[in-house]
Amino acid sequence: MIPAAVLRGGTSKGVYLNAADLPADPAERDDLLLRLLGSPDERQIDGLGGGHPLTSKVAVVSPAADPATADVDYLFLQVHVDRPLVSAEQPCGNILAGIGPYARLRGLVAPDAGTVRIRMVNTGGLVTAVLGPGAPGEEIEVALEFQDTAGSVCGDLLPTGNVRDEIDGIPVTCIDNGMPVVVAAAADFGLTGHETPAELEADGELTARRERVRLRAGELMGLGDVADATVPKVTLISAPRAGGTLATRTFIPHRCHTAIGVLGAVSVATAVGLPGSVAAPYATGTDLVRLEHPTGRFDTRRTPSGGAAVLRTARLLSDGTAWPRPLHRS
């Protein structure tokens, strides 16, 4: 058994754990998490996962190793639904929204802390979470201000060295401002960019071509063979329909996101401001970039420090003791 809290962070849901309650050995830790969330199983019926990448996430939180720069450390782990695999290749900005509330809940910071400085262990990036009021179970507004996110995974904001490349006949912008993303126009894939996630996932020809682009982009971005990796993501963009800056459809990496990830949104918004990028035609001359997605919109604003701030919400759903699936012993 293990103490566990479940929080909705932004448009994702995850299991939040204290690092002190987990095995120190990564292999033992990952085995425990697979059993805790019920993987591999498409329904995750025997665990806390929700049968989808957006609901099969884990946040591991601990006191900061360097208290001078952060209050807590946050390691994000993606537990694959259909494979016995736990990935630490990337951070998750939606789950990040729940770190401050979880830190207050567990006494890692003061229970009334208005700001929580967080180090994202996956990338080493720093973010300040400004927390609104709210008791456990109430929705809490969380403003996330990112610092020094450019190139946090690939080493450079534009890891190919170009603001625009062409892969498989498709113009793309490969960018990493906290999340490696391949930005491409939906029209170049023969799409309107307003298809539903179900329609996009059912399009086998689209899936094959998008994956060819993603695999080659991974090589160009210095990530090597990304066939079994969750990055880079691919975001297809198009003209907005609801007053936003542009519309997005993001793949993570094969399922179509019903919204858009926080750090992925920051990367796409940054691309909008880069002259010559695939997204540059949608620039409005303001710091606010409003991204439409399948279930709503996502606002991000560039900050004077060169970072980006986004507004999310988080809510504690449950807190108690979790019982992982027992080990199978021969």
Automatic annotation (TrEMBL):
Pfam families: PrpF. It comes from the Bacteria. GO terms for molecular function: isomerase activity. Gene3D superfamilies: Diaminopimelate Epimerase, Chain A, domain 1. The keyword Coiled coil does not apply. Its EC number is 5.3.2.8. Keywords: Isomerase. The keyword Isomerase applies. Belongs to the PrpF family. This is 4-oxalomesaconate tautomerase. It comes from Actinomadura macrotermitis. The lineage of its organism: Bacteria, Bacillati, Actinomycetota, Actinomycetes, Streptosporangiales. The gene is galD.
